[in-house]
Amino acid sequence: MNRCLFAGPKSRSLSETRTLATYVVDGGVQDIPADVRHEAKRAVLNYVGCALGGSHEQAVDAAVRALSPYSGPPTASILGRTERMDPLHASLINGISSHVHDYDDTTPKNYIHPSSPVASALFAYASVNPVRGEDFLNAFVLGFEAESRIGNAVYPAHYDAGWHITGTAGVFGATAAIGKLIQLSEDQMVWALGLAATQAAGLREMFGSMAKALHPGRAAQNGYAAALLAQAGFTAGEHSLEGPRGFAAVTAGTYDLAKITAGLGVDYDLRANTYKPFPCGIVIHPTIDGCIQIREEYNLNPETIAAVRLRVAPLVLDLCNKRNVTVGLEGKFSVYHGAALGLVRGKAGLLESTDEAVNDPAIKRVRECTTAVPDPALTEDQAHIEVELRNGEKLEVFIEQSLGNVHRPMTDRELEGKFRDHAVPVLPASQVEKLIEFCWQIVDVEDCRTILV
Amino acid sequence: MNRCLFAGPKSRSLSETRTLATYVVDGGVQDIPADVRHEAKRAVLNYVGCALGGSHEQAVDAAVRALSPYSGPPTASILGRTERMDPLHASLINGISSHVHDYDDTTPKNYIHPSSPVASALFAYASVNPVRGEDFLNAFVLGFEAESRIGNAVYPAHYDAGWHITGTAGVFGATAAIGKLIQLSEDQMVWALGLAATQAAGLREMFGSMAKALHPGRAAQNGYAAALLAQAGFTAGEHSLEGPRGFAAVTAGTYDLAKITAGLGVDYDLRANTYKPFPCGIVIHPTIDGCIQIREEYNLNPETIAAVRLRVAPLVLDLCNKRNVTVGLEGKFSVYHGAALGLVRGKAGLLESTDEAVNDPAIKRVRECTTAVPDPALTEDQAHIEVELRNGEKLEVFIEQSLGNVHRPMTDRELEGKFRDHAVPVLPASQVEKLIEFCWQIVDVEDCRTILV
Fold first, then answer.
1. What CATH number corresponds to the domain at position B146?
2. Count of domains observed in chain B
């Protein structure tokens, strides 16, 4: 690694861009610790599920409709859809699908949704080129780390300024991952990172519109293209991260470039990655979680419920106090609906976010007998739930750490359950199980196309 | 216009984004004053010349090589090249070609190179769709004004922060122009501007590399795609310009949104557009200009020159003091070479930027007998030139306003000369003249494809 820090033939000075490029060019799968490899597989499994689950949303349909006439030879598969497009467009569509439900992974270190930009490009690439599973996983880890470290360097000033960091940092991840697979030289990787930097975009003003999901899509597509351009000799500024007019200086009032390089190859941000168990506002998660626990522990018959009383962090009621719920989307912003789902159905996945679910009479009845009070003593990861039955009996639970946060991660089996929830409506059952197997056994796969094509 | 400022069915509040969208949706060619129409034709002529002149540069070859395998059906023509690509990729390549020599238009109001993003998308579009010349010109003017006004609102803080404003403001121009031609509704135009805003990118750190020319290319391509996505119902935030996490707030420390809407449809930034007469650092222009004048006025035989003495603004020697010139690119940064070109060849176009020209013995001799002193009393638009002949005679000229600046614009004939300089090496002579004719007569053209295909 040190070779990039000292004067070589070109008399190079210290450069975070070059150090990172060298790391990506040199990094081999054997360098990745076992726990990080396992977390990468979990991230890929969660990613594929999210992409399948989102693959038929309106935003995805609109993008496919608008851009299909401009697609190159339709060689690449799109996760969850039968259309094919060229690999750049497939990257874009995968990116939109996987983020459209806001159900993909994230890390509290920088609030990037890190897998979407990286894996969206990789799955498109690997559907048309021979890629060994271990090389796929290696490229994923390197892309993830490059993206997350650049995010760490500019977070929080960058995010606070209004950048959607999933798009802006994401493009570096896709660039590094594809650049790794097409075996860019060190100089080419430096250019590719420069081409990524100068295409980094995405405004938080888009939150609440389809354009939010465009960000990881464009990040995947532009990162992929950045690697191709660099390979063809298309040059870019060589100090794209640290230069006075580079990514950090231009997009963040304060930043710490040391976070890009400190502990590189030793500390992995993948270890801090988290997965959402429910496709709704994260502050409702402990309530849903607790209600599912009560239902299971007491083998609850929902018809016996007389009242539900919640104590939650005040922020929960600021964000998710919706009482009158008639369409699926509104349910995502109602802590009352979340409680009812947990108690009546024992789950709150994508199938419970529909218009049908919010209008289910059994759910509606429980939702309407649920009340909530704010309790400043509780964090947003906590909730206290009391269920009073018609016979006067009271059932209680206190959730101290919400399922899915970094202290209480979803188990591998829970991630598989989430995956099936996404995948079953989209794919034949046999393929669903094959994809789960693919994710866990990825390092032994000879050619990913055997699964993806 | 007022209808967007007051509560309608959706109870709209004042929004620069919507006001601008309405202007673009409603604007007709008959609304454009005659002088602005004429300036638009000059801008288009200058643009096409630059695109032809740059169309075989290394950066363009690399981009075509890297991205051709990903192009959709090759229906669109690329200015100056025989390959065809889909219209989005053709927009990209046109954008790179037209900016790669840094020879395209600009305005001192905001230093955007405004025509490249707008016209690059329009020429790609008009090569595959029936477009009447007057609609082309109208879309060009509307795109130009949208882009330039957004640029004015964020300039100079945005540019000073390190954004390459040609890329960041440029994407709005391409969006507006294509959105106009595909007849977006007002709501769709608002979304399209949002999709533009959230893809706006380009860092000044890329200056000096090929990536600088990528910026107007991606602006053209992404703006074109933004219009297509919006047409397909892909939504975006509706306050992309003025919102608290919108383009202005996120990318400029200070900004003035009133500049987007003040005098809309009355004041045209096209009136302040300028064209470079020489493809080199603008601070050398008065020296070249003066040397050409001396050569012409005195019918100078360059062999009679004994010495050349320049007085120039100090900045000229900071930027362009290169004495030892052996390759074409170096000549662009040598005020001595500029003087020699003017005196020996009487011109300093693209054909004088070659390795051949800098090594021409006659030019080399004059370059080496040229000296320059800084004079703080001179502006960068001025130069004093004294030529001493072998017989002791002294010829002098003082340039007060440099050719090409807003006070001494290039004439239509001079623009035609620049165009031929670009076009002759690329196209048959008959086609060169037909393209000039096309630009001047554009409002009478029934279908632009008759010229462009």
1. 1.10.4100.10
2. 2
**Structure confidence by residue, pLDDT tens digits, A352-391:** 888 999 999 999 999 999 999 999 999 999 999 999 999 9
CA distance B91 to B116: 10
Considering the domain architecture, whether residues B336 and B221 belong to the same structural domain is answered as no
Both A164 and A143 in one domain: the answer is: yes
Domain that holds residue A28: 2-275+416-452
Task: Judge: B237–A206 Cβ closer than 8 Å, yes or no.
Answer: yes
Residue A218 forms contact with B (CB below 8 Å):
yes
Nearest to A96 by CA among A75, A125, A67: A67
Report the pLDDT averaged over residues A422-438.
95
In the stretch 225-254 of chain A, residues with CB closer than 8 A to chain B read 225, 228-229, 231-240, 243-247, 249-250
DSSP, residue by residue, B170-211: HHHHHHHHHHHHTT--HHHHHHHHHHHHTT---BGGGTTSTH
- Claim to verify: residue A257 and residue A294 sit in the same structural domain: no
Q: B205 and A235: CB-CB below 8 Å?
A: no
ipTM of the complex as predicted? 0.92
In a domain, A409, yes or no: no
- Return residues 372-411 of A near B (CB < 8 Å): none
Is residue B286 located within the same domain as residue B271? no
User: Is residue B200 within 8 Å of residue B251, measured between CB atoms?
Assistant: yes
The answer to whether the CB of A56 falls within 8 A of the CB of A86 is: no
Nearest neighbour of A66 by CB, restricted to B70, B207, B232: B232
With beta carbons under 8 A apart, name residues in chain A contacting B69.
72-73, 86
CATH number of the domain encompassing residue B344:
3.30.1330.120
φ, ψ at B312 (rounded to 5°):
-140, 165
The verdict on A347 and A420 lying in the same domain is no
> In B, residues 55-84, which contact A (CB 8 Å cutoff)?
58-59, 62-63, 65-67, 69-73
Min Cα distance A348 → chain B (Å) is 27
Which pTM value belongs to this model? 0.92
* Residues A154, A269 share a domain: yes
